[in-house]
Amino acid sequence: MQAEIGIIGGTGLYDPKLFTNAKEISVDTPYGPPSDVITVAELNGRGVAFLPRHGRKHTIRPTDVNSRANIFALKKLGVTRILASSTVGSLREEYQPGDIVFVDQFIDRTTRREQSFYTENRVCHISVAEPMCPEVRRALIAIAKDAGFRAHETGTYVCIEGPRFSTKAESRMYRGWGADVVGMTLVPECVLAREAELCYASIAMVTDYDVWKEHPVCVDDIVQTMRSNIEKVKHIIVEAVKRLPKERNCECGSALKNAFV
Fold first, then answer.
1. Which one is catalytic: 99, 104, 180, 210?
2. How deeply is 116 buried, as exposed, middle or buried, from its count of CB atoms within 10 A (0-12, 13-18, 19+)?
3. Among this protein's residues, is 210 annotated catalytic?
4. What predicted TM-score, i.e. pTM, was given to this entire model?
């Protein structure tokens, strides 16, 4: 089966009622196995491929997510666009729990993750000056506005190694850098999508205020906020699959053009 749009999500996003003609597919890649089997199905008459980033039972740590295998597998199935949902902590008062953030920039604080497919005979200097696909982001922003969701059109995401949460000193430092949200999964996922010449856009849900606001980050609170707002993310994804044009009108498909010496 071939898919057109890839959906990478976490706990609670997958909903069998959204899909028709669903089949689970195991995909082999040169980089090892993806996080889990991939569900290829129809959504609003278009082929989609759903992949749980941390595995179905959320057993894969952020650092251990095999992003190279995940992105390679989605492209192998025919995917040209990726809608990636995640949860994040807020570093700004105005980015409230339950809000949606359409991230447009990132600061990378990871240290243990392979960020390129090209590790042997070639070196790829991929440009991520604008790491998200502008065409997909515009569609997502319009959908959130139409639905009346509290959403932020821009956001700088600090990607930390995890799985631990930040110290107060780190959280205050990230705020001082001008970052808006903090999470553990955006990098290298979006970088590898660019190397694979796929369109990629992040749908980030704010679940907490990190620790800068003198309130400890609690997994139970994060899960509760996520569960109460996951329908927003589902709505955005369903509408995006419906609205995105068949033909891509961006430069993501030629990202490798000037990436090699």
1. 210
2. middle
3. yes
4. 0.95
